[in-house]
Specification:
By secondary structure, the chain is an alpha+beta fold. The protein has helices spanning about 5-15, 60-65, 80-95, and strands spanning about 40-45, 50-55, 100-105, 110-120, 130-135, 150-160, 165, 190, 195-200, 200-205. Strand 9 (about 195-200) and strand 10 form a beta hairpin. The two termini are about 20 Å apart.
Length: about 210
């Protein structure tokens, strides 16, 4: 993970779940992650079994030039990537996977920017699976939010095992505490894993990419 939003949300989610596969949706307190809310989203499974936006932050909606609530999540990507994205998110729903997607977004006027997306499972019961996520832009060009992202291509995917994550030596950032007055500065997470290729993608299962 490279974006502070992904790192912060991962630490919050990991602390909240307290060893369980996923925390309950009701345990997530928006006030704890208020600095991230504009970039966060929640997905649910609709009556057709598709992953759709239940909620989306204001900056995300501005980035895509529309209200995302109710829209299909895989539809954000180019058609050739949609089936893979759908499978990954259903893995978050059903297997409580943690997924990190790096992608390039293309605007209506042909501009492009890199993004990082983190998808985390929430326990909403068998009938109501949920996914908590955040999308962070690698850079903040002047046009982002004014020239809508209309297309995207996946650069890489990492499927993360939180139990095997190792702390690295990157500078610590502030993470909301679940205990009042607790002061912590946790290290950031390094998504490490053995790699395998799926078409044009490199997938990591929680280890280290070999050079």
């Amino acid at each position: 993970m490279n974006q502070n939003g992904s790192i912060t949300l991962f630490h919050y989610w990991n602390r909240l779940r307290d060893g369980r596969p996923a925390p309950k949706r009701s345990e997530v307190e928006p006030a704890d992650i208020k600095s991230l809310l504009a970039d966060t989203f929640i997905l649910e499974r609709d009556t057709r079994g598709q992953a759709v936006f239940r909620l989306a932050g204001t900056r995300l909606c501005a980035c895509y030039g529309r209200e995302l609530k109710g829209f299909s999540f895989p539809s954000l990507w180019r058609e050739k990537d949609q089936r893979l994205v759908s499978r990954l998110i259903h893995g978050v729903f059903d297997q409580k996977s943690v997924v990190l997607i790096n992608f390039e977004g293309f605007s209506r006027n042909g501009r492009s920017n890199k993004f990082e997306l983190l998808a985390l499972p929430l326990d909403g019961g068998i009938e109501n699976p949920r996914c908590l996520g955040v999308i962070g832009a690698a850079e903040k060009p002047f046009w982002l939010g004014a020239d809508p992202i209309t297309d995207a291509l996946i650069d890489s995917i990492r499927v993360i095992d939180p139990e095997k994550e190792l702390l690295n030596n990157r500078p610590a950032i502030g993470v909301p505490s679940l205990v009042p007055d607790e002061i912590e500065a946790p290290d950031t997470i390094s998504a490490l894993g053995r790699a395998r290729r799926i078409r044009h993608l490199v997938v990591f299962d929680g280890g280290r990419e070999d050079s």
